[in-house]
User: Fold this.
Amino acid sequence: MSKEKSIKEYYKIGKKGIIASIAYSFLVAMTIMFQSKIKFSGVCQDGYTKNQFGNFFWGDIIAVVAFTILVFLVVINIIALCNSKKIKVLNKLDEKLTKKKSILYWIIATVLLLIPYMIYFLTYYPGFIHEDSLNSIYQAIGDVKYNNQHPVAYTFFIEIFLRLGLRVCSNLNLGIAFYTITQICIIVGSLGYFLLWLKKHNVKGIFIALTYLFFAFNSCNLAIAITMWKDTLFSILLFLMTLYLYDIIEHDGCQLKMMNGVVKFILLNFLIAFCRNNGIYILMAEAVILLICFRTKFKVFKVLNVISLIIIILIQGPVYKCFEINSPSEEKFGIPIQQIGRTILCDGNITEEQKEFLNKILNIETWKKVYTPCTVDITKWHGDFNRGFLKDNEKEFIKIWAQILMNNKVEYLKAYLMETCGFWAFGLKGEEYYGAPCYIYQGNDLGIKRTDLIKKVTGISLEKFYKKRPSFISVGTLVWIMFLVVTILIAQRNTKYILSLTPLIFSWMSVIISTPIAVCLRYMYMIVYALPFIIMLPFLVQNDESKNREEYRKEVRKIDEN
Assistant:
């Protein structure tokens, strides 16, 4: 018996599973090697003397090989544990929920979630306001012209509540509070739906209870829920899309045969696309995957889905342009700007002609001084940075960037790894204010201020329970957990369920292509919301081929149709 065959039989892992495990192990090993080169101060705004990337050595190859073998052994044992069915996430398939019971369960779950969120909100009334929040607020109240740096549709949404607050008692704080309460209701309603979703999928009560505790008492979840950020709503919407895609797969796509199922999908498309600017790219990638997965099925759905994407593109393109609602060019060139900045700093191979062009964007010596390895914001928001010239010469900039790349590949790679390190490195976190308690941007001149309403009414403050800045697992760690689950699904021969994770995967891909800052949990907060789902996914699908599971899916389908 060959060694490969014995591994396959002992671990119940097929050839594809072994290949996937080796690929995953190699990528993790590369990540560990790259991360070992990074010196990170914990503050993205620190300069290149504090945030550095070391040199590569031949010994790195040996380290990668060694770590690949080690990680592979760990991965195949995790797969074996999942396949052994020693961890039972599902109950016996004998409980069905009627529509009335489902609604009641959702209401109870939502109310139980709402209580801790509202207590947190009342402690930090009217909610957290950051610099990005002010950008939308100034547009909403008419102090600044509309632009699409932060989605204008999201700004319109904020404007509804701000104008309501100003109309009721000429109080901007009240308007912000109206917005925050609405956002909390959307989030807890969605998370309550997820608890119901778990119940419908016959997940054991203990795991549903743990999921509730994770959502209700993780202070990071509470903080981001009362923060005026587009990322909060965007994340919860992508999470809902993830659940919907799982249901589509589990029910053999029956939702896409019904008009109400198609409408639900397209509605999610519109909300996602207009909530954050990278939403449309995620949806376009999703559409391609769906076209491949359902090549000969659901023609009406595919046509309507494509039409909806075309409408979104037309609105965000010609319509926005007609109303002079523009997005800054420097936003999409964040990483190229960083790569050129590092090359300039390191006196890389740049011709005089290329320097002459770059000098028109920002003086070469200034570029050296302001280059900050872990955020492009210091460079692109410098007073001398010529945004107009960059916007008028985008094609030439891309051409120059590509030319410089050919002779400075290593510096480009280092610049890229430093600018994105928080999204792939294990445990790398920084001083990011994704909801630090009592955080209201001190530069605001609108009279926005925090009030502890609970203390004001009762004389008792609960702030001591929230005083420590909320923190969570790093984005990089979350991403590798997600890809480990993808590897397990391949080994389980349940690859179709990877489709449910594609909104999260495409979101991550869009971020590492254009992130303006190396560490920012809020950009990928949808993975935090989806973490219980991700962890349970291999166990949810492990009985997929059983007769009982098929019968259960049919029953669920009947209930949904009714």
